DNA sequence: TCGGTGAGCTGACAACTGTGCACTGACTGG
DNA sequence: CCAGTCAGTGCACAGTTGTCAGCTCACCGA
């Protein structure tokens, strides 16, 4: 037990340095993954790009799969709060739709490599990474369902229908993100994708307003 | 006796043999791709599994990317007619929905490796393969839109809304296919996925019946 | 029947891979 | 202050990779 002086600086120069090279490994891997997939990425390739010796890799990750899981956490971990805030913010349907699409668009604009990684490895060749992404997306769906349940017009929905709708929304946003990636840097093409995404959401919202038929 | 001059055999023993080993290359690659992705698959690995010498690979494909494109064609090429027939068959909405989901389910059941390959390489690390899959899916969307246009209730739809709806349907079926793969061989889990897919389609059909709001 | 074609083979090459081992030296807690 | 920890290094190893050149020999058309 630490009955030490109680200083605030717990970091330690050593651990900080370690975290820095760990981060440079993650960055290097992410950059290399823009043009190939994780199962084709070599350990030496990554360490070379990160500027360290190959064997130093093992100080941070057991595997490339291990590194991949860390990348998933980095890509998706901080997003839950954002999504939750966005959903809770507005009640008006049209505003909610516009805000959600804008959120996805900004995510793709600001972190294209992360999004590309997720799209690629969601069904990729490395099981632990696949499962990490899938689990994270499931968590998103549950959170979205919880927010949907707070809307008055969903008060009489069955729980499973609510989850179905939430998962549908999540899937729509994921495919929107990949479509935005595929559209590339062309602003006009990106705007077309966003507009189509909004229309899709409008259609689904319209359907759910008349549910269950 | 054996060498009848006017035989109908247009194939030729030689070309037939070549096609057979080409096919065994495709089969071997597909089998190996169940547990990794194309950009991590080695030429030697494939030829070893196919039972031929490494250099013989070049007699059939220039690249692994080339082989991948051939796999896309094999996986998706024959599907257009099936989809078209399925859509044209029934007019009743509920029957159409059930039939479509059943078609996807059967596809996954009968050709799981092909479907897995498509899901994996749709956003995978090999550009030509990505583009081949994307182009094929676009063609599907156009075909679906053409079939939708024949329905009386869609007579007053704008062309772009029709395409939006068609693309939505295609994306829904693609995500349904991956979900079925993820569900694995468990029949109960598969049935749950199918039921949710039907509900999704019902919701979308409901929304489109009230379009544009 | 005979020369040409071409699918598939063998052997070899340099380049690259993941990982084990022993080492250094800056940091650390007591 | 000093002994211990541990991130990072260098070297070595056995395998594997893609590809080249040249060979065989079953098939082909004429």
From TrEMBL, chains A, B:
Domain named HTH tetR-type: residues: 19-79
Annotated region of DNA binding: 42-61
Pfam families found in the cross-reference section = TetR_N
GO MF annotation terms: DNA binding
**UniProt keyword list:** DNA-binding
Q: Which InterPro entries match?
A: Homeodomain-like_sf, HTH_TetR, HTH_transcr_repressor_FabR
The molecule here is called Transcriptional regulator
Originating species: Streptomyces roseolilacinus
């Amino acid at each position: 037990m630490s009955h030490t002086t109680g200083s605030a600086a717990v970091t330690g120069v050593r651990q900080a340095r370690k975290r820095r090279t760990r981060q440079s490994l993650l960055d290097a891997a992410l950059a290399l993954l823009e043009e190939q997939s994780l199962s084709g990425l070599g350990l030496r390739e990554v360490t070379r790009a990160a500027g360290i010796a190959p064997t130093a890799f093992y100080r941070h990750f057991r595997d490339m799969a291990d590194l991949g899981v860390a990348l998933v956490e980095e890509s998706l971990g901080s997003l839950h709060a954002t999504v939750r805030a966005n959903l809770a913010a507005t009640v008006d349907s049209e505003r909610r739709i516009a805000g959600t699409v804008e959120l996805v668009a900004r995510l793709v604009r600001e972190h294209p490599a992360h999004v590309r990684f997720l799209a690629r490895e969601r069904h990729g060749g490395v099981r632990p990474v696949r499962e990490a992404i899938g689990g994270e997306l499931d968590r998103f769906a549950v959170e979205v369902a919880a927010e949907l349940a707070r809307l008055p017009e969903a008060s009489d929905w069955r729980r499973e229908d609510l989850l179905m709708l939430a998962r549908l929304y999540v899937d729509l946003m994921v495919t929107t993100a990949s479509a935005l990636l595929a559209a590339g840097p062309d602003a006009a093409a990106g705007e077309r994708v966003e507009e189509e995404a909004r229309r899709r959401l409008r259609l689904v919202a319209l359907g759910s307003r008349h549910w269950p038929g």
